[in-house]
Design a protein that fits this description.
It contains 25 helices and 24 strands. With about 700 residues, it is of the alpha/beta class. The radius of gyration is 41 Å and the shape is elongated.
Length: about 700
């Protein structure tokens, strides 16, 4: 290339251009280079060439900052912003860019040594820091675009090509030969084409902006795009083009789908969970013009707590997975099988008939009742299953929640009759449902208005003789009034459990009991026992609410006893274990209620740190009449004392029962013989006199 830069054309360039040979010395320069860098440049070394220049920090240019030396060492192009001193004038700001000759493609991992280096020197306006900041912003914008997989495009009205302003056609799987509009449109998923075209046509028709999500073909699959577009106006004020961005949001959409799957799927059985089943049920009920009936089958494993107690939680989990597997076998486009709670499952059936729904319920009942061969059980396991069937006929106005309650009522009716049955919801149960709904509303109102209050049943600590007995505590029992009448606990407690109000009920009772009894005890050291339902113990922070009640009353937890049913401990989740641990830290005494009614209460004595146990009234009733019942109670008392637990016996109805329990070494007793549940004032009088 001898004399190339001395050509008259090269002399017209405003940029300085230099040619550096493979040995690193300047071989040719044009006139602009001489103007910018000075005379006698030919033969100069790279270091000598830029010796007068300064970096942005005012220091001389090092070899690592010298673009020419960088190209000679790496074979890669290099650019640097430098300040060039001019005697008697302000310094010039120069951009020096060096590129290898021949040029090296970006996809070459190890560039060959350049045969020459072309250097372009451009004088730029503005201060060096401003120029550098602008370049950095442009660089960061490019990095951000690549990280966000964002491409910029422009399309002019009537053109057959899409102009990708930053090489973004690669995002669409298009090469330089396939930039055409048709090629681009062919890649859009057929189901998304209408929304895409409607957006673009609309922006050509009227100035504005908009966005759309679509799928785009990519390497045999589909990528998710988010496309944003805006109208571009011509000189006449009419829309002449569109410009916008496309962003590959596949990873985001896949992550969102994964999160939704996790939030709507039961982790143990991998069936749809309660939220998904009820969502699909709501969709089915609101479908316009659907034919046939929609049926909801609710299936409950009878006595599931006994499986956990006898075989352990791992076998219980295996059983639930096996039940879920059998239900999943019937799932299809019109049938959704799901797990609603611990041992409660459901099957949603769309476009069915009452006869078909009932036939399916009986088939599932038979199928789920077949023996299960579980790895951890060691023997075939047979269970009973109660199935409730609720129907929604076309034209009826029933919500998803109402239909579920209907099916749940049918299940309850089946279990109340002994279980292992299929029970369709009918008009007789509808009356029960209406009563329950009324009672639910009354309970909600009572909780808000303070019409749920505790009644207190005295608890005596037994001495060697009756003269030594002392009333040392009481049990707080929920009582409710509605419409001027007392509602039996057997009614409103069951409604609280099915309506999701049992936690509010528990909180209302223990908060008042702490405030009324512990804050101002009838006698020194007087304590109170409260019941916490299994649902309450599964609520994160329930222990914190108890701690708040104690703190507000200025008392510690040592005078508070919390009674827990065996069902609460059958599935010791992390939340339950954490709540029990935090109650223990408060000093609260923990005990097992209704001991002996479950399947393996002894297991709970080994697994949980308890303070007392309460013998169920069914054993106490016959303690003086049946020697076997007496032997059981005596064994329970001895077992509890061996575990350093106190024993409370409930249901004391006669003096003979009381003396029999005293002889067996029972620690505390309660029952109608000693005192019925009473208001606070009566409790204070009884405690002060020592008689109920």
């Amino acid at each position: 290339m001898p004399g190339l830069l001395g050509d008259p054309v090269a002399g017209l360039l405003t940029e300085g251009v230099l040619l550096v040979g493979a040995d690193g010395r300047v071989e040719q320069v044009n006139a602009a280079a001489t103007h910018l860098l000075g005379d006698d440049l030919v033969g100069e070394t790279p270091s000598g060439l830029l010796a007068p220049a300064l970096r942005a920090d005012g220091r001389p240019v090092r070899d690592g900052d010298n673009p020419v030396l960088v190209v000679l060492a790496t074979g890669r192009a290099s650019t640097q912003l430098l300040s060039w001193p001019v005697p008697g004038s302000a310094a010039r700001q120069l951009q020096v860019r060096a590129v290898p000759l021949p040029p090296v493609p970006d996809d070459v991992d190890v560039p060959p040594a350049p045969r020459a280096v072309a250097v372009v020197v451009t004088e730029v306006e503005g201060d060096l820091e401003g120029i550098r900041a602008l370049r950095d912003r442009e660089h960061l914008l490019g990095v951000a675009q690549r990280m966000a997989e964002l491409s910029v495009w422009r399309y002019s009205l009537g053109s057959t090509n899409v102009e990708w302003l930053d090489g973004g056609q690669r995002l669409a799987g298009l090469d330089d030969e396939r930039r055409g509009l048709d090629a681009y449109l062919e890649g859009i998923h057929p189901d998304d084409r209408a929304a895409h075209d409607a957006l673009l046509y609309g922006l050509f028709a009227q100035e504005g902006s908009g966005e759309v999500d679509l799928r785009y073909r990519w390497q045999g699959g589909w990528r998710h795009w988010h496309l944003w577009a805006e109208s571009v106006l011509g000189a006449d004020g009419q829309v002449t083009a569109l410009w916008g961005t496309t962003q590959d949001v596949t990873a985001r959409r896949e992550a969102e789908a994964a999160v939704r799957h996790l939030s709507m799927t039961d982790a143990l059985t991998e069936l749809p969970n309660r939220a998904q089943v009820l969502e699909r049920l709501g969709t089915a009920l609101s479908a316009v013009g659907h034919s046939g009936s929609t049926a909801l089958l609710v299936l409950d494993v009878d006595h599931f707590a006994g499986v956990n107690a006898r075989h352990g939680q791992s076998v219980g989990d295996e059983l639930l997975v096996a039940v879920g597997g059998r239900l999943a076998a019937v799932a299809d486009e019109l049938r959704t099988a799901g797990r609603l709670s611990a041992d409660e499952f459901a099957v949603l059936v769309e476009h069915t008939t009452p006869a078909e729904a009932l036939e399916l319920a009986h088939r599932l009942h038979r199928d789920l009742s077949r023996p299960y061969l579980l790895p951890g059980a060691g023997e075939p396991l047979t269970i009973g299953v109660s199935v409730g069937v609720a129907l929604h006929r076309s034209g009826e106005r029933t919500s998803a929640g109402e239909l579920y309650r209907h099916a749940a009522l049918a299940v309850d009716a089946g279990q109340a009759a002994g279980g292992a049955a299929v029970v369709p919801f009918d008009e007789s149960l509808r009356a029960v449902a209406a009563h329950r709904l009324d009672l639910e509303q009354q309970l909600r109102t009572a909780l808000v208005e303070g019409a749920v209050r505790p009644a207190y049943q005295p608890v005596l600590t037994l001495g060697a003789t009756a003269a030594d007995d002392r009333m040392t505590s009481c049990e707080a029992l929920a009582r409710m009034t509605a419409g001027g009448r007392a509602v039996p606990p057997t009614e409103f407690v069951a409604v609280a459990e099915t309506a999701g109000l049992v936690v509010d009920l528990d909180v209302a009772v223990f908060s008042q009991a702490v405030r009324e009894v512990l804050e101002r005890p009838p006698v020194a050291g007087f304590g109170v026992a409260v019941n916490l339902s299994p649902l309450s113990l599964q609520v994160p922070g329930i222990s914190g609410r108890i701690a708040t009640a104690l703190q507000q009353s200025g008392v510690d937890g040592r005078s508070l006893r919390v009674e827990i049913t065996e069902g609460s401990l059958a599935e010791p989740t992390s939340v339950l274990v954490r709540n029990l641990g935090q109650l223990r830290e408060l000093g609260v005494q923990l005990g097992l209620d209704d001991f002996g009614t479950g399947y393996s209460a002894l297991a709970y004595l080994r697994r949980f740190d308890l303070d007392f146990m309460k013998i169920d009234r069914s054993f106490v009733a016959d303690v003086t009449l049946d020697r076997r019942s007496a032997a059981v109670v005596r064994a329970v008392v001895d077992l509890a004392h061996a575990h350093d637990l106190h024993v409370v016996a409930e249901g004391i109805e006669t003096a003979e029962q009381l003396e029999s329990l005293r002889a067996m070494g029972c620690d505390m007793v309660q029952g109608f013989h000693l005192g019925r549940p009473m208001p606070l004032d009566a409790l204070r009088r009884a405690a002060s006199t020592g008689t109920a």
